[in-house]
Amino acid sequence: MIASDSGVDCAPNIPPSVNTTNLPLCGFYNAGICPFYSPSISGHVFHDLNTNGTRDPGEVGFGQATVQFAPGNTITGVMNSGFYAQALDSGTYAITPNVSNPYVLSISPTSHSASLVNINDVDSLNDFAVQLQPNVQDLTTDLAFLSHARPGFNNMVHLSYRNEGTITMSGTVVFHFDDDQSWNSSTPAPDMISGNTATWNFTDLELGEQRQIFISLHTDASVILGTAIDHDAVAEPVNTDQTPADNVAFLSGEVVGAFDPNDISVLPSELTSAQVAAGELLTYTIRFQNTGTYLAERVIITDTLSSDLVWSSVEFIASSHPCSWYIHDGTLRVTFEQIMLPDSTSNEP
Fold this sequence. Notes:
Number of strands: 23
Order of helices and strands: EEEEEEEEEEEEEEEEEEEHEEEE
Helix content: under 10%
Strand content: 35-45%
Distance between the termini: 37 Å
Strand order of the largest sheet: 7-5-2-3-22-23-21
Oligomer: single chain
CATH superfamily of the largest domain: ntegrin, alpha v. Chain A, domain 3
Largest sheet: 7 strands, antiparallel
CATH topology of the largest domain: Immunoglobulin-like
Radius of gyration: 23 Å
Shape: globular
Structural class: mainly beta
């Protein structure tokens, strides 16, 4: 607690690293200067087009990856730009990338070593060069409910598509929505809409690039609670795609009445022993709402992952706002900086 006349402007309440216990605090003698000490390791994961092992101009980042730090149980996500950074305690760490792309030929180097001694040390030259199998076409599509369908209200659906292949792509994304809902709007707007089908054209989708569409649909007040809602989407072209099955995404739900806007859902909700043995993936969706009375500038979500999950297998699909994330000792932490999320009374769908 800080008195209003103390001259202390701020007191950090967030650890500068994942396992720091002695935190620097602002005092009377440095009022107005509240340093954020953060010994950290950073670098880039990038597509090495000319195979020279160096990140050159024009070589795009590779966001389909995580980076693991040992010793310890810390895994951090890589941004779409290919950049990653993780605050850590003092020590020497082995840094290992995990790239979730089936067309990887090599990663150089296979690991880095970095040492942090002082509280403000930053080791930022830990790049990983990824070389890919050339000339592969592979688009993927994902769908998720951002809010539930309710009689008489609008709800949001999130559609994302990504270039998982190794050549720049152009094509179309087609979204078919349920007969019990009507079109309201989308961002970006579709290039064409006919009946229950909306179509967007896209050009120059780079390697690893993901684009997003936010769709608003309306449910008539006469629709009965429990009515099934089914949508699907497809990224085209399909016939020349390396894995055409993941070009298509399906989304199923039902019309509800009252609901908790802050929830976690997983699909499928259960796995058989055979599905576990086959390595079938689970898709988690975390929804959250600002129930305060003013916009939220910074949102942090923490979730303890089950010990039955392989934490290093986590792949980030998409989010409604830019964010960063990491896992430490099985706890997922997602941070939305400058999210400016309106409160629910000002912006209730």
